[in-house]
Specification:
Blueprint (H helix, E strand, L loop, with lengths): L1 E6 L3 H12 L3 E4 L2 E4 L3 H15 L8 E6 L2 H4 L20
Antiparallel strand pairs: 1-3, 1-4, 2-3
Length: 93
């Protein structure tokens, strides 16, 4: 899994970047997405950032991408609504 966190000053650019990330991952906080896919997907995301978005960034804009290994995934501590993300849900009809 990958975590992408960003701080982009322009509302328009931030909205466009958020929509881009939605096609690859899940929004977990205002400017934080998780991408639960392969290294190939990360390559696509990095290439898109490099070729489409990097040239439009202001000096104050930032993007962080963290790779989370399976062992580290088990060590994540969640509170509030996030604490329910990894639990199984059973639906009965």
């Amino acid at each position: 899994m990958f975590i992408v966190s960003y701080d982009i000053s322009s509302d328009r650019k931030r909205s466009k970047f958020s929509k881009f990330l939605q096609s690859y991952g899940e929004k977990v906080q205002y400017s934080v997405y998780t991408i639960k896919n392969s290294p190939r997907i990360l390559g696509i995301v990095l290439a898109e950032i490099e070729h489409r978005y990097r040239k439009t960034f202001e000096p104050t804009d930032s993007i962080y991408i963290f790779r989370i290994c399976d062992g580290c995934m088990k060590k994540i501590v969640r509170y509030g609504s996030a604490s329910h993300e990894e639990k199984d849900v059973v639906f009965l009809d």
